[in-house]
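Why does residue order matter? Because the sequence determines the fold. Keep that principle in mind as you read this record.
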Amino acid sequence: MSTSTDLAAAHGSQEQGQGQGSSERLDVAASVLALLADRTRLALLHRLGAGEADVTSLIEACGAPRTSVSQHLAKLRLAGLVTTRRDGRRVVYSLRHGHLRRLVDEALNVADHQIGSLPPHD
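Structure:
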């Protein structure tokens, strides 16, 4: 099963909780987190959380070479985490859903707490 199919299936199994789909749901969540466990992909997703962008804007935002950014975007697109649309000759990328933006934001908030020795809170 492809990662994008896995992600769609996991979204549909949210209501299953501890039932039959929870193992698959955990597998898909782990694959999403594995994709986020790369600095360049995390930077790309963080930038896309602010709104759609073309490759040139994404290169500037993450500071990686064009070939690297293109490869990371391809992985994110194949996983179903980002979508594309054409704007003339440009390809414009955006996050597939707000869940991903919030997940990236929370990961960065955890980093802020660890870097700044901030107190825990809910």
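Residues 52 and 94 are 4 Å apart (CA to CA).
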